[in-house]
Amino acid sequence: MSILVTGAGGQLGMEWVKFLGRMGLEHHAMTSKDLDITNSGAVDLTLNRVKPEVVVNCAAYTDVDGAESDVEKALRVNRNGVGHLAEWCAGNSIPIIHYSTDYVFPGRKTDLVTYPDGYPEDGETDPVNRYGESKRAGEELLFEAGAPYLLIRVSWLCGEFGNNFVKTMLKLGNERDRIQVVKDQIGSPTYAASVVKLSHQLLQQGHKGIYHITSGGMISWYDFASEIFRMAGVNTVVEPVSTSEYPVKAPRPAFSKLDSSKISSTLSIQMEEWDEGLTELMNKLNA
Ligand SMILES: NC(=O)c1ccc[n+]([C@@H]2O[C@H](COP(=O)([O-])OP(=O)(O)OC[C@H]3O[C@@H](n4cnc5c(N)ncnc54)[C@H](OP(=O)(O)O)[C@@H]3O)[C@@H](O)[C@H]2O)c1
């Protein structure tokens, strides 16, 4: 089965490429330079040439704060780009795996009471910021296109490639004696390699539809940073701050947890806890 990966130079894209290489599966890794998904002509040309049997879309505009001032750019990639890929897949009856985010939900603190296990796949979307709006718009185009799809929402992604919170903390731990980290936003750090492995299992078993993939458990960014430093033996002091003390352009969700019980029962597995994924990642990073 030939798999084409878009956004192959990003955090999740590189993880997919590594996984497919290790499994000896035929694949075509397309970085943003190889294939710009906002260019519908280039999408058609490339996909007609490669003739993949599955498209995995890891391409996205992920600058959450940048999307507040340049929502058009976010929409071009996260909505239109998804539409181009999904239409080609629909026209060729090819399955597409597409990734989305917890930011399509409102992220209210009180939602923890309504959804103690996290937002379910059929929970009502109401994006928390412009980036979330652009990702939701992409989801809608995916549904409309009519290709067989797996829409996989993830959150707090951390892997060995690209940029993420763990790598940022390890860098700051080398540079600073103390840092401030937000304490009133909670979610589940999720290991990128596990996301790829589970996505591939869903594909292999022929599942379709929406799935949430996040680790078990829930913590704040502050507790996460503290655990990263503890595991790495870093002495940097972590000071808790509130969201209001740490102003950023885009509003962030107070509650980011996605309910992963659907994939858990579909694949008859138990989701790994966030600290198991973190341990594996720290070993990979030799931290
Ligand atoms: N990271 C997280 O915590 C997180 C959380 C929730 C959901 N997600 C979702 O998970 C998916 C993967 O995220 P990630 O962490 O791997 O993001 P990432 O590291 O920022 O990777 C995104 C990739 O998309 C590429 N890209 C951007 N515009 C493109 C275009 N027009 N055509 C083709 N490629 C383009 C980027 O290339 P350039 O660098 O060259 O622009 C980059 O390689 C995304 O759908 C994201 O929304 C991520």
What are the defining features of this structure?
two-stranded parallel sheet, Rossmann fold, globular, 287 residues, alpha/beta, binds NADP nicotinamide-adenine-dinucleotide phosphate
Unreliable stretches, pLDDT < 50, 5 or more residues?
none
Q: Which CATH-level-2 architecture?
A: 3-Layer(aba) Sandwich
Number of domains: 1
The largest β sheet comes out as: 6 strands, parallel
- Under CATH, the topology is which? Rossmann fold
Q: What structural class results from the helix and strand content? A: alpha/beta
Strand content: 15-25%
Tally of alpha and pi helices: 11
What integer value in Å does the Rg equal? Answer: 18 Å
Oligomer: single chain
